[in-house]
Amino acid sequence: MVHHDGGLYNRIDTSVAHPARRYNYWLGGKDHFAVDRTSADQIAAAWPSAPIAARENRRFLARATRFLTRAAGIRQFLDIGTGLPTADNTHEVAQAIAAQSRVVYVDNDPMVMAHARALLTSAPPGRTAYVEADLREPGRILRHPDLLATLDMSRPVGLMLVAVLHFLHGPGAAAPIVGELLDALPPGSYLVASNATKDFLPAPVKAVYEQMLAAGQTDIWPREHAEFAALFNGLDLVPPGIVVVSDWRAEAEERPRPAAADVSVYGAVARVPDVRRARNW
Questions:
Q1: For the domain 2-271, what is the CATH code?
Q2: What is the pLDDT of residues 127-137, one digit of tens each?
Q3: pLDDT one-digit tens code per residue, 14-51
Q4: Where are the domains of the chain?
Q5: How confident is the model at residue 216 (pLDDT cuts 50, 70, 90)?
Q6: 8 Å CB contact between 229 and 280
Q7: Alpha helix locations (H) across the chain?
């Protein structure tokens, strides 16, 4: 796999931490380098529950995928910011319910794509495809021939933006990108999204986090409730609406649920209505 492909390995920058590899480290995986572990440990030193947040984000993705497949009848998914393969990947969750489900995975890390192509294999009649691209270039993603060969963009799509929007830095930076992606999807599609937040952090932890962000020691850009909620303007929120990811339809999860401050990630699922409404960003 990665280590036997010299051309690929040369494209992986092991001197810069990558979110997917850091996430993998927090989830207990083995696909990370020293720089990723250092970055993860720096963040966890300021916010010790970071691994809890990573696990709860992953569980939210699985629950949302089950909801879209079982309750909403979605059979095709666009998962951007895929991350390195672990348990309960989107196509595995969806195809366990509806074998014909199709999934396009998108990530900007060549290591992620190498692992995805090797490990995220789909049994017929479902299909999976892999696009190496960046969320900051939604047009390139939407025009990619592998996406267009896999998904029927005239039929509803589940757009999965889980634990990826907080790598778009700056107030308002996520809205136009989410908007461009949603504009390409027909009514009956769904948006599943999550984003880190400081809203629940104690003041001392919040101050340390702001210092780390200013110093470039973390690349996770937190969003307040109002900015995250604005991403769903014009959509129909699925109950329970915008909540901490650990609380989204988590009735079957282990108890007690983590405290909001230990997760500090908003999540929500919403449907593109049959008659589109203005989003007013």
A1: 3.40.50.150
A2: 999 899 999 99
A3: 788 887 788 788 877 777 889 889 888 888 787 777 88
A4: 2-271
A5: confident
A6: no
A7: 6-11, 19-26, 34-46, 50-66, 90-97, 110-119, 138-143, 145-150, 174-183, 203-214, 225-230, 260-263
